[in-house]
Amino acid sequence: MHLRYSYRLYPTAGQRTLLARTFGCARVVYNDALAMRKEARRAGQPYPRSTDLQKLVITAAKKTAERAWLASVGVDPLIQSLRDLDTAYRNFFDSVSGKRAGRPVGLPRFKSRKDNRQSVRFTRNGFRIRGNGKLNLAKIGDVRVKWSRVPPADPSSVTIVLDPAGRYHASFVVDVEPEHLPVVPAEIGIDLGLTAYAVLSDGSVIDNPRFLRKAEKRLKAAQRELSRKAKGSRNQAKARRKVAKAHAKVADTRRDWLHKQTTRLIGENQAVYLEDLNVRGLARGPLAKSVYDAGWSTFRRLLEEKAARHGRTVGIMHRAFPSSQLCSACGHRDGPKPLQVREWACGGCGVLHDRDLNAARNILAAGQADRLNAPGGPVRPDVAIPRQARSVERGTHLGDLRTTDVRAAGAGGIPRP
């Protein structure tokens, strides 16, 4: 499997100039190739092939007076820029044809030199790691790297990124083997929220750190200072960089916290189950800032990635599953409840439930039932599953929950002995 390892770069002033030139050349090659393909489409001609584009916008362009400066940078990032354009077109056509799942992907657009984020990619021919720990880039030189950890294998490529805060990063792609952790009996259901970040089915609670809310005062001051600068001035550029650094600090802190929480959950549990939340829909409402501050999508993505690497299972329950309406003790469905109701008594058995804890227990039970009844499993429930569960499983058969108050087997509630 492929992993990315990112490290901070500290280029000298001269190397920053060379990197800026490389960013610009790669951007020009990308835009020239995109313009040729758009022109071919308008003329009713077939798209130029990648090899033909490479000859036109790189090899032949270097011999012209208008593009002679392309020869001042390495050819590897220029070729990778054309491959990025091919990938963008492939993603668009796959999205239109239905081969690509997820949000629709539009046609490639021209890149701007004013973009806050710049990047170029080098393959094995364009970089190497020196014995003294420095990263050698073609026609740029040896760049100092802050090695926070040792890469597990030789990288196949490296992407040099300049973020909006003015920081340089080297993102290495490394091919590693999965590292399966020892099997543990524990499984957990998670109910995500805003008051508490997560309530687990074992009763433990993960508090919501609210990194953005805590930094709002500092962010508002930096943004206010930016708004007072003259447009296009150097002071405005400095103030904009200050705002970007403040936001980067919040994002880095949140990412570090999410990594620690997901690593702990994957290490302690053989299977983790959570709901498929409609984050985009929730972000359109009055809670948008809090929803984005929580980072639920990143939390789920990190769980899935770490589960695939370490031989764990992540079950994603369908967003229509009524986790907050079912009694985890008897399975009775009480119906929807407003958000301000945090505790409720079951109308069937009278058990008093904490809303979030009850939902987490229902998610756990539904996930375990789906995993037991997954394709390839045994017919009889008392027979062990003779296979390893997939790293990511999605589903939840709602059964007769939509029409009656009786739950389908395993669709909700704690499994009874």
Molecular structure report:
- The model is unreliable at 377-390 and 396-417 (pLDDT under 50).
- The protein has 10 helices and 15 strands.
- The strands form 3 sheets. It has a 7-stranded antiparallel β-sheet with strand order 2-6-7-1-5-4-3.
- The longest helix is centred in the middle third of the chain and has 35 residues, at 234-268.
- The chain has helices spanning 13-42, 50-60, 75-97, 211-214, 216-227, 234-268, 279-282, 288-294, 296-310, 355-372, and strands spanning 2-10, 118-123, 127-129, 135-137, 141-146, 157-162, 168-175, 187-192, 196-200, 205-207, 271-275, 313-317, 343-345, 352-354, 392-395.
- It is an alpha+beta fold.
- It starts with a strand and ends in a 22-residue tail after the last strand.
- Helices cover 38% and strands 18% of the residues.
- α1 crosses α2, α1 crosses α3 (75-97) and α2 (50-60) packs antiparallel against α3.
Provide a concise account of the structure shown:
This protein is α+β, with helices and mostly antiparallel strands. It has 10 helices and 15 strands. Helices cover 38% and strands 18% of the residues.
Helix content: 25-40%
Question: What is the averaged pLDDT score?
Answer: 87
Based on CA inertia axes, which overall geometry fits?
Answer: elongated
Q: What is the N-to-C order of secondary-structure elements (H for helix, E for strand)? A: EHHHEEEEEEEEEHHHEHHHEEEHE
Compute the separation of the termini in Å.
Answer: 40 Å
